[in-house]
Amino acid sequence: MSFMKYKVLILEDEKHAQETLAGYLQEHRDFEMMGIANGIGEVQAMVDTFHPDLLFSDVMLPPHTSFDWLLTLNHIPFEIIFTTSFEEFAIKAFRMAAVDYLLKPIDKGDFEQALDKFRQKKKSGEGTENILQLINNLKEKTSQTRIALPTMTGFLFVAIQDIVRCESDNTYTTFYMSNKRKLIVSKTLKDCEQLLLDYRFFRVHNSHLINLEYIAEYIKGEGGLVKMTDGSHVDVSRRRKEEFLRMIR
Fold it and tell me: What is the mean predicted confidence (pLDDT) over 2-9?
């Protein structure tokens, strides 16, 4: 029985991580490991030679990061699964662009899930839009950063500066955009809050996260009421009022 065979490269400078990834890959007949690059000085030549379908890439490759190399590329024809330590700055960037990553030490179950996601992407014909968005976010100024919002058909990338507010509906969140568009996505408000806190968003209520740049007016009260520039009104909870007033002052 014939099956698709995917070519894989590993970009990793830690011997243990190299051995772990190579060992896990050996258990899958539909993946063929073409080689291991120890740093960004080696990886481009291997990519040019083998034309991989998938790259496992460590983030920290002293004195560089894998981003230093990726930012030099105009085109990324292969999928990437990053490997990283939890404390690294990169995890938030991955979540913003919905890019797959594995935490070190690499758990076999997580590895298997990552391969399954890769297979599904290839079968559905999805491109490398998430990887490209990650790279664009690294290149752009903060205001131009885009976030990947999961939809029924894939992901929608929206500029953070265009989000007016987010409203919770249990496990879903509605994004209200500056062009009056409403987007319902399968993310909790807590997930959205974690992604957007560095971009002047504030959770004024259990069910409301607002972009402080779109506040038109604050009306005093027990907790108070915020009027947004799109005409919407959002309650401020009593327990969040003091911190909110410090933020807007």
Answer: 85
Average pLDDT, the chain: 91
Residue with the larger pLDDT of the pair 137 and 215 = 215
Both 11 and 131 in one domain: the answer is: yes
If asked whether residues 40 and 114 sit together in one domain, one would say: yes
- Give every CB contact of residue 45 below 8 A, 6+ residues apart in sequence: none
CA gap 69, 248 in Å, rounded: 39
Query: Burial of 126 by CB count in 10 Å (0-12 exposed, 13-18 middle, 19+ buried)?
Result: middle
Residues 191 and 108 in one domain: no
Cα–Cα dist 173/178, whole Å: 16
CB-neighbour burial class of residue 220 (10 A; exposed 0-12, middle 13-18, buried 19+): exposed
pLDDT score for 36: 97
Q: For residue 117, give Cα distances in angstroms to 31, 79, 81, 113.
A: 14, 11, 10, 6
pTM, whole model, 2 decimals?
0.74
132 and 23, same domain (yes or no) = yes
Residue 125 pLDDT exceeds 70? yes
User: 235 in a domain, yes or no?
Assistant: yes
Instruction: Quote the domain boundaries for residue 70.
Output: 6-137
Same domain for 21 and 110?
yes
Contacts of 119 (CB under 8 A, 6+ apart): 30
Number of domains in the chain: 2
